[in-house]
Amino acid sequence: MTTLSAFNKFTSVLSEQESLMPVLFIGHGSPMNGIEDTEFSRKWTQLGKEIPTPKAVLVVSAHWLSKGTRITAMDFPKTIHDFGGFPKELFAVQYPAPGSPSIAKETASLIKSTQVVEDHDWGLDHGAWTVIRHMYPKANIPVLQLSIDYTKGPQYHYDLAKELYGLRKKGVLIVGSGNMVHNLGMVAWDRLNDAEYGYDWAKQINGTFKDLIRKGHHDKLIKYESLGKEALLAIPTPEHYWPLLYTLGLQGSKDDISFFNDKAVGGSLTMTSVKIG
Protein backbone atom coordinates (compact mmCIF):
# COMPACT_ATOMS: atom_id res chain seq x y z
CA MET A 1 0.00 0.00 0.00
CA THR A 2 1.35 3.41 -0.94
CA THR A 3 1.97 5.68 2.04
CA LEU A 4 1.18 9.37 2.38
CA SER A 5 4.89 10.11 2.77
CA ALA A 6 5.44 8.51 -0.61
CA PHE A 7 2.68 10.72 -2.02
CA ASN A 8 4.58 13.81 -0.92
CA LYS A 9 7.74 12.67 -2.71
CA PHE A 10 5.99 11.63 -5.91
CA THR A 11 7.22 13.07 -9.19
CA SER A 12 4.66 13.54 -11.96
CA VAL A 13 4.96 11.43 -15.11
CA LEU A 14 2.30 13.49 -16.92
CA SER A 15 2.92 17.00 -18.18
CA GLU A 16 0.26 19.69 -18.18
CA GLN A 17 -1.25 20.82 -21.47
CA GLU A 18 -2.96 23.97 -22.64
CA SER A 19 -6.52 22.66 -22.80
CA LEU A 20 -8.56 20.58 -20.36
CA MET A 21 -9.65 17.11 -21.35
CA PRO A 22 -13.42 16.69 -21.34
CA VAL A 23 -15.11 14.34 -18.88
CA LEU A 24 -17.72 11.77 -19.86
CA PHE A 25 -20.55 10.00 -18.13
CA ILE A 26 -21.52 7.03 -20.28
CA GLY A 27 -24.77 5.14 -19.96
CA HIS A 28 -23.33 1.74 -20.86
CA GLY A 29 -26.48 -0.40 -20.81
CA SER A 30 -26.31 -4.01 -21.99
CA PRO A 31 -22.90 -5.66 -22.41
CA MET A 32 -24.04 -6.49 -25.96
CA ASN A 33 -23.33 -2.87 -26.86
CA GLY A 34 -19.70 -3.94 -26.63
CA ILE A 35 -19.93 -6.05 -29.80
CA GLU A 36 -23.05 -4.84 -31.60
CA ASP A 37 -23.37 -1.96 -34.04
CA THR A 38 -25.99 0.10 -32.20
CA GLU A 39 -26.81 3.79 -32.16
CA PHE A 40 -25.15 3.88 -28.75
CA SER A 41 -21.91 2.18 -29.77
CA ARG A 42 -21.74 4.30 -32.93
CA LYS A 43 -21.81 7.43 -30.78
CA TRP A 44 -18.98 6.06 -28.65
CA THR A 45 -16.95 5.53 -31.82
CA GLN A 46 -17.73 9.06 -32.93
CA LEU A 47 -16.66 10.49 -29.57
CA GLY A 48 -13.31 8.75 -29.82
CA LYS A 49 -12.69 10.62 -33.06
CA GLU A 50 -14.01 14.00 -31.91
CA ILE A 51 -12.31 14.57 -28.58
CA PRO A 52 -8.54 15.09 -28.22
CA THR A 53 -6.56 11.87 -28.09
CA PRO A 54 -5.93 11.20 -24.38
CA LYS A 55 -2.68 10.14 -22.83
CA ALA A 56 -4.67 7.63 -20.77
CA VAL A 57 -8.25 6.76 -19.88
CA LEU A 58 -9.42 6.41 -16.27
CA VAL A 59 -12.78 4.66 -15.86
CA VAL A 60 -15.01 4.73 -12.78
CA SER A 61 -17.33 1.80 -13.44
CA ALA A 62 -20.50 0.75 -11.65
CA HIS A 63 -19.13 -2.78 -11.71
CA TRP A 64 -16.09 -2.38 -9.49
CA LEU A 65 -17.16 -1.87 -5.90
CA SER A 66 -14.64 -2.31 -3.12
CA LYS A 67 -14.09 -1.55 0.54
CA GLY A 68 -11.77 1.40 0.23
CA THR A 69 -10.56 2.92 -3.03
CA ARG A 70 -8.37 0.96 -5.42
CA ILE A 71 -6.78 1.64 -8.79
CA THR A 72 -5.57 -0.86 -11.37
CA ALA A 73 -1.79 -0.72 -11.49
CA MET A 74 -0.72 -3.54 -13.76
CA ASP A 75 1.02 -3.32 -17.12
CA PHE A 76 -1.72 -5.25 -18.93
CA PRO A 77 -5.17 -5.39 -17.29
CA LYS A 78 -7.21 -8.46 -18.15
CA THR A 79 -10.60 -8.29 -19.86
CA ILE A 80 -13.25 -9.25 -17.30
CA HIS A 81 -16.45 -10.93 -18.49
CA ASP A 82 -18.53 -10.10 -15.43
CA PHE A 83 -21.94 -11.19 -16.70
CA GLY A 84 -23.89 -14.31 -17.61
CA GLY A 85 -26.45 -15.51 -20.10
CA PHE A 86 -24.98 -13.79 -23.15
CA PRO A 87 -23.70 -15.27 -26.45
CA LYS A 88 -20.30 -16.93 -26.53
CA GLU A 89 -19.13 -14.22 -28.95
CA LEU A 90 -19.31 -11.69 -26.14
CA PHE A 91 -17.24 -13.88 -23.81
CA ALA A 92 -14.64 -14.30 -26.54
CA VAL A 93 -13.89 -10.58 -26.72
CA GLN A 94 -10.53 -9.43 -25.44
CA TYR A 95 -9.59 -5.78 -25.19
CA PRO A 96 -5.80 -5.79 -24.82
CA ALA A 97 -5.22 -2.15 -23.91
CA PRO A 98 -2.16 -1.56 -21.74
CA GLY A 99 -2.35 -0.26 -18.21
CA SER A 100 0.12 2.15 -16.61
CA PRO A 101 1.57 1.57 -13.15
CA SER A 102 3.16 5.03 -13.25
CA ILE A 103 -0.12 6.81 -14.03
CA ALA A 104 -1.83 4.70 -11.38
CA LYS A 105 0.71 5.91 -8.85
CA GLU A 106 0.31 9.52 -9.96
CA THR A 107 -3.49 9.27 -9.71
CA ALA A 108 -3.24 7.79 -6.23
CA SER A 109 -0.93 10.64 -5.24
CA LEU A 110 -3.64 13.20 -6.04
CA ILE A 111 -6.13 11.70 -3.62
CA LYS A 112 -5.47 12.97 -0.11
CA SER A 113 -8.81 12.14 1.52
CA THR A 114 -8.13 8.42 1.60
CA GLN A 115 -5.31 5.98 0.97
CA VAL A 116 -5.62 4.47 -2.50
CA VAL A 117 -4.48 0.87 -2.92
CA GLU A 118 -2.69 -0.08 -6.12
CA ASP A 119 -4.52 -3.17 -7.38
CA HIS A 120 -2.97 -5.97 -9.45
CA ASP A 121 -5.93 -8.38 -9.54
CA TRP A 122 -8.88 -6.60 -11.16
CA GLY A 123 -8.66 -5.52 -14.81
CA LEU A 124 -11.23 -3.96 -17.13
CA ASP A 125 -14.84 -4.92 -16.38
CA HIS A 126 -17.66 -4.57 -18.89
CA GLY A 127 -18.48 -1.07 -17.67
CA ALA A 128 -15.09 -0.12 -19.10
CA TRP A 129 -14.16 -2.28 -22.06
CA THR A 130 -17.56 -2.46 -23.79
CA VAL A 131 -17.39 1.32 -24.19
CA ILE A 132 -13.68 2.02 -24.59
CA ARG A 133 -13.12 -0.62 -27.29
CA HIS A 134 -15.46 1.37 -29.54
CA MET A 135 -13.76 4.66 -28.73
CA TYR A 136 -10.21 3.36 -29.13
CA PRO A 137 -10.39 0.13 -31.15
CA LYS A 138 -6.62 -0.08 -31.63
CA ALA A 139 -6.25 -0.62 -27.84
CA ASN A 140 -3.14 1.55 -27.92
CA ILE A 141 -4.06 3.96 -25.10
CA PRO A 142 -3.51 3.00 -21.44
CA VAL A 143 -6.77 2.26 -19.63
CA LEU A 144 -7.06 2.22 -15.84
CA GLN A 145 -9.98 1.73 -13.49
CA LEU A 146 -10.71 3.41 -10.17
CA SER A 147 -12.97 1.47 -7.83
CA ILE A 148 -15.98 2.81 -5.95
CA ASP A 149 -15.91 2.47 -2.16
CA TYR A 150 -19.31 0.94 -1.42
CA THR A 151 -19.06 1.86 2.27
CA LYS A 152 -19.29 5.58 1.49
CA GLY A 153 -22.15 7.84 0.50
CA PRO A 154 -22.82 10.13 -2.48
CA GLN A 155 -21.13 13.23 -1.04
CA TYR A 156 -17.92 11.28 -0.45
CA HIS A 157 -17.75 10.14 -4.08
CA TYR A 158 -18.47 13.62 -5.42
CA ASP A 159 -15.76 15.14 -3.21
CA LEU A 160 -13.21 12.46 -4.08
CA ALA A 161 -13.72 13.18 -7.77
CA LYS A 162 -12.71 16.80 -7.23
CA GLU A 163 -9.27 15.61 -6.16
CA LEU A 164 -8.78 14.11 -9.62
CA TYR A 165 -9.30 17.41 -11.42
CA GLY A 166 -5.58 17.78 -12.08
CA LEU A 167 -5.70 14.79 -14.42
CA ARG A 168 -7.87 16.81 -16.80
CA LYS A 169 -4.98 19.26 -17.13
CA LYS A 170 -2.63 16.41 -18.01
CA GLY A 171 -4.51 14.77 -20.86
CA VAL A 172 -6.30 11.99 -19.01
CA LEU A 173 -9.84 11.22 -20.13
CA ILE A 174 -11.97 10.37 -17.10
CA VAL A 175 -15.10 8.33 -17.81
CA GLY A 176 -17.90 7.50 -15.39
CA SER A 177 -19.74 4.40 -16.63
CA GLY A 178 -23.16 3.50 -15.28
CA ASN A 179 -26.78 4.50 -15.99
CA MET A 180 -28.81 7.40 -14.59
CA VAL A 181 -31.97 5.31 -14.46
CA HIS A 182 -31.19 1.66 -13.74
CA ASN A 183 -33.94 -0.57 -12.38
CA LEU A 184 -33.36 -4.09 -13.71
CA GLY A 185 -36.22 -5.45 -11.63
CA MET A 186 -38.74 -3.48 -13.68
CA VAL A 187 -37.27 -3.95 -17.17
CA ALA A 188 -39.79 -4.82 -19.88
CA TRP A 189 -37.60 -7.44 -21.52
CA ASP A 190 -40.04 -7.83 -24.41
CA ARG A 191 -39.65 -4.13 -25.26
CA LEU A 192 -35.86 -3.87 -25.36
CA ASN A 193 -35.90 -3.25 -29.11
CA ASP A 194 -38.71 -0.72 -28.89
CA ALA A 195 -36.89 2.55 -29.47
CA GLU A 196 -37.29 5.05 -26.65
CA TYR A 197 -39.77 2.92 -24.68
CA GLY A 198 -39.67 4.24 -21.13
CA TYR A 199 -42.06 4.26 -18.20
CA ASP A 200 -43.48 7.67 -17.36
CA TRP A 201 -41.65 7.80 -14.04
CA ALA A 202 -38.34 6.91 -15.74
CA LYS A 203 -38.69 9.66 -18.34
CA GLN A 204 -39.77 12.14 -15.69
CA ILE A 205 -36.83 11.59 -13.35
CA ASN A 206 -34.37 11.37 -16.24
CA GLY A 207 -35.59 14.79 -17.32
CA THR A 208 -35.17 16.07 -13.77
CA PHE A 209 -31.60 14.75 -13.63
CA LYS A 210 -30.77 16.48 -16.93
CA ASP A 211 -32.31 19.77 -15.80
CA LEU A 212 -30.33 19.74 -12.54
CA ILE A 213 -27.13 18.93 -14.44
CA ARG A 214 -27.71 21.82 -16.84
CA LYS A 215 -28.32 24.23 -13.96
CA GLY A 216 -25.34 22.98 -11.94
CA HIS A 217 -27.49 21.94 -8.97
CA HIS A 218 -25.10 19.22 -7.91
CA ASP A 219 -26.26 19.42 -4.30
CA LYS A 220 -29.69 18.14 -5.31
CA LEU A 221 -28.19 15.37 -7.40
CA ILE A 222 -26.02 14.30 -4.48
CA LYS A 223 -29.12 14.17 -2.28
CA TYR A 224 -31.11 12.32 -4.94
CA GLU A 225 -33.24 10.52 -2.36
CA SER A 226 -35.01 13.83 -1.72
CA LEU A 227 -36.15 14.05 -5.36
CA GLY A 228 -39.17 11.85 -4.75
CA LYS A 229 -40.38 8.33 -5.41
CA GLU A 230 -39.32 8.50 -9.06
CA ALA A 231 -35.69 8.88 -8.00
CA LEU A 232 -35.98 5.90 -5.68
CA LEU A 233 -37.42 3.82 -8.53
CA ALA A 234 -34.60 4.98 -10.81
CA ILE A 235 -31.90 4.23 -8.23
CA PRO A 236 -32.97 1.16 -6.22
CA THR A 237 -29.27 0.59 -5.57
CA PRO A 238 -26.74 3.38 -6.12
CA GLU A 239 -23.81 1.73 -7.90
CA HIS A 240 -24.90 2.76 -11.43
CA TYR A 241 -25.61 6.32 -10.28
CA TRP A 242 -22.37 6.93 -8.38
CA PRO A 243 -20.24 7.21 -11.58
CA LEU A 244 -22.38 10.23 -12.56
CA LEU A 245 -21.35 11.96 -9.33
CA TYR A 246 -17.68 11.34 -10.13
CA THR A 247 -18.24 13.01 -13.48
CA LEU A 248 -20.04 16.01 -11.98
CA GLY A 249 -17.36 16.44 -9.34
CA LEU A 250 -14.86 17.04 -12.14
CA GLN A 251 -16.85 19.87 -13.74
CA GLY A 252 -15.18 23.25 -13.92
CA SER A 253 -16.89 26.64 -13.87
CA LYS A 254 -16.36 27.24 -17.60
CA ASP A 255 -17.26 23.78 -18.89
CA ASP A 256 -20.02 23.34 -21.43
CA ILE A 257 -22.56 20.56 -20.85
CA SER A 258 -24.09 18.40 -23.57
CA PHE A 259 -26.11 15.19 -23.62
CA PHE A 260 -26.00 12.26 -26.01
CA ASN A 261 -27.53 8.77 -26.36
CA ASP A 262 -30.47 10.32 -24.56
CA LYS A 263 -32.92 7.44 -24.84
CA ALA A 264 -34.79 5.00 -22.63
CA VAL A 265 -34.43 1.23 -23.02
CA GLY A 266 -36.74 -1.48 -21.73
CA GLY A 267 -38.92 0.92 -19.77
CA SER A 268 -36.74 1.33 -16.68
CA LEU A 269 -33.25 2.06 -18.05
CA THR A 270 -31.89 5.21 -19.67
CA MET A 271 -28.77 5.45 -21.79
CA THR A 272 -28.54 9.22 -21.26
CA SER A 273 -24.90 10.29 -21.27
CA VAL A 274 -23.12 13.55 -20.49
CA LYS A 275 -20.11 15.33 -21.96
CA ILE A 276 -18.51 17.98 -19.76
CA GLY A 277 -16.08 20.35 -21.44
Automatic annotation (TrEMBL):
Signal peptide: none annotated. GO terms for molecular function: ferrous iron binding; stizolobate synthase activity; zinc ion binding. Its EC number is 1.13.11.29. CDD domains: 45_DOPA_Dioxygenase. InterPro entries: Extradiol_dOase_DODA (IPR014436), Xdiol_dOase_suB (IPR004183). Its cofactor is Zn(2+). Keywords: Dioxygenase, Metal-binding, Oxidoreductase, Zinc. Belongs to the DODA-type extradiol aromatic ring-opening dioxygenase family. This is 4,5-DOPA dioxygenase extradiol.
